[in-house]
Amino acid sequence: MADILGIDADGVHESAALETDSTALGVALDRVRSRRRKAEPDAADRLLNDQRGLIADQRRHLREQFRHLGLKTWSERLKLILQALTLLVGLTILGAVGLLAWQAHAADGVVIDAFTVPPDLAARGYTGQALASRIQDRLNRLQTQTQTVRPAASYSNDWGHDIKVEIPETGVSVGELQRVLRGWLGHEIHVGGDLVRTPEGLSLTVRTEDGGDEVTGSDADMGGLLQKAAEALYGRTQPYRYAAYLAGAGRMAEARTVLIDLATSGPPTEKAWALTGLARGEPNPMIGHDYARQALAQNPDLAEAWLMFGGTAQRMGDYEAGYQGQARALALMSRPDHGGMSTESLVNAGVAADHATFAGDFSGCLAAAQRMARVATKPWVRANAQGQALYCTGLVHDLSGVRRLAGGQSDEAMTRAYPGPGFKNIEYNWNAVWTEEDWAAGLQQLEGAERALRERGPMVNSYLRDRLYPLKAMALAKIGRLDEARAIVAPLGVDSYWAMVARGFIAEAAGDHAGAERLFKDCIRKAPSVAWSYGYLSKARLERGDDDGAITAARAGLKPNPRFSDLYVFWGEALLHKGDARGALAQFEKAQALTPRWGRLHLKWGEALAKLGRRDEARAHLRTAAGLDLSAAQRAELTAQRV
Q: Looking at the predicted structure, is the pLDDT value of residue 513 above 50?
């Protein structure tokens, strides 16, 4: 085959091969012609046979050559495979080193090295490693007890939950390489220190790269000594978290000191958060509001600052600013960066629940609080959610639900049981008696809650002044104790939202309908986004027989607050008084979707159906009302129904 291609086994040139083949071809043709002339072989036959032998030899030679070429090919392939494997091993090693370097670069936790301890304490088990491990345990416990919605990545010196004790290794190992790389490339905070004896007892010094803190104690109180050391380390490395921990533990003065130092001399990224912390813990809402304004000047896109702006405004009685502050915070929290807040949906759910109450969306508030309670993992978050759910259960007029969730406890008992120094709105049973119109029982609940709140210190003063005292005056006005009601509201601010509501109740109870109208309208002007004002005005007009006025107030309130069930019911009742039972049914059906367990709603619904001659449906709704909570007057009205 090789000679046909032009190269024989010995490398003969193409022209020689062609020449040989031409001679053989000529001889073969001559032989064919000569065979016709004679039968015996001649010299041509012998030449042709020799040519055949030569071709056979060439083929054998080529087969051997091809065999050698095949072996050479496999040899080259094996060399390539070995080279590839060598390269792969090299890349793997390089990649492993690169991964270790990257992990080391990203390392930002706390590494507690073994402490130096006196020999006698080491002999008793307080070795340097044991001391480091115990401080690690206390640091982890401090983090667990810290209540904050701030995301870890926003801290200027965050070490997250990565707290570990490092044991030095001898020789060369992967662990030792990792330790060297973390020290070279990472951002870990290394903690060390020593425990020494002094004439007074023991002195424990905890050191970081930024300095050290010394705490003292006795042999008998080693646990207290370690706790103080862990707190000192927490405060030095994580000042905002430490302040949040102190506030949660009721150590407000210490928390304030830490936050003031952070707000005045801390890194720029810490100042806005420190100011919001000061606003949250400030007993005087006017000062707290100023802190919130300063925080917004530092970072106008920080949702927590807007929450503090709204919360302090609310504590001053400015509920419109409270509503707008929460609205702005929710808008920021819906952005990809969550307004600088934690990414947990619990934060959004809690704020959404609070915000919904302003708009009269009590069913929305209840749904958000229940969702938060289901998924909460931290006890303080779960307690907040359960309190919010209980509060909103009363607002949707599910009084049996309130009693079931409260377990028969009074507002006083639940306020005492609430964890931490803070509190949620505590008018749980108050909301129930509001619906039942049992004002004497409501007054009793509020007075009990007041006793419990006074034990919480100055933080509750603004809540008592802005919220609880006006509610107390409203209850007193409803049971005819007008002088006592007036005495309570007299020292309250004239611009405080709830004080204005209470004065409207007092005027209405005293027969000063014009004064009540003016006060309730002032409430609407002061807080046009807050649903309650329209409800108070609509109900007052309904009770004095001004059906058209009640409808006007309800219609006006439902434009900004379309999920406020009470206004649909008041509108329906006014239509029922006017003889428009069919129109009343349309309003009651809208309310049903929002407050399905409101006894008053089903009572009036049954009355409207009876007027339309739909007696079977009327009986069904009256039976439903009988199984729900009604005031004494409503229960008498139910008994008088003849369907």
A: yes
Inter-residue contact 372 to 240 (CB < 8 Å): no
The H-or-E segment that residue 22 falls in is helix 14-35
CB contact at 8 A, 582 and 612: yes
Tens digit of each residue's pLDDT (9 = 90 or more) over 459-496 = 788 888 888 999 999 999 999 999 999 999 999 988 88
The CATH code of the domain at 110-237 is 3.40.50
Q: Give yes or no for a contact between 232 and 212, defined as CB atoms under 8 angstroms apart.
A: no
* Helix H or strand E encompassing 201: strand 201-208
Q: How would you classify the pairing of strands 201-208 and 189-198? A: antiparallel
Angle between the N-to-C axes of helices 379-395 and 399-406, in degrees from 0 to 180, rounded to the nearest 10: 150
Measured on CA atoms in the order 23, 28, 33, 35, is the torsion positive or negative?
positive
Residue 589: pLDDT band (50, 70, 90) is: very high
**Selection from 331, 324, 394 nearest residue 365 by Cα:** 394
Q: pLDDT (tens digit, 9 = 90+) per residue, 290-331?
A: 999 999 999 999 999 999 999 999 888 898 999 999 999 999
Q: Where exactly does CATH 3.40.50 map onto the chain?
A: 110-237
More confident residue, 91 or 175: 91
Tokens coding 517: 């109208």
3-state SS, 326-347, equals: HHHHHHHHCCCCHHHCCCCHHH
Q: For residue 546, what pLDDT band results from cuts at 50, 70 and 90?
A: very high
Distance CA 174, CA 152 (A): 29
Q: Boundaries of CATH 1.25.40.10 in the chain? A: 238-335
DSSP characters over 605-641 = HHHHHHHTT-HHHHHHHHHHHHTS---HHHHHHHHH-
User: CB 435: neighbour CB atoms within 10 A?
Assistant: 24
C-alpha–C-alpha distance, residues 359 and 380, integer Å: 26
Distance CA 210, CA 215 (A): 17
pLDDT at 14 over 70: no
CB crowding 49-78: b at 16 or more within 10 Å, else e = eebeeeeeebeeebeeeeeeeeeeeeeeee
Q: Which CATH superfamily is domain 238-335 in?
A: Tetratricopeptide repeat domain (1.25.40.10)
The pLDDT value given to residue 171: 43
Q: Which residue has the higher pLDDT, 13 or 518?
A: 518
Three-state secondary structure of 71-111: HHHHHHHHHHHHHHHHHHHHHHHHHHHHHHHHHHHHCCCEE
Three-class secondary structure of residue 284 per DSSP: coil
Q: How far apart are CA 228 and CA 242, in angstroms?
A: 12
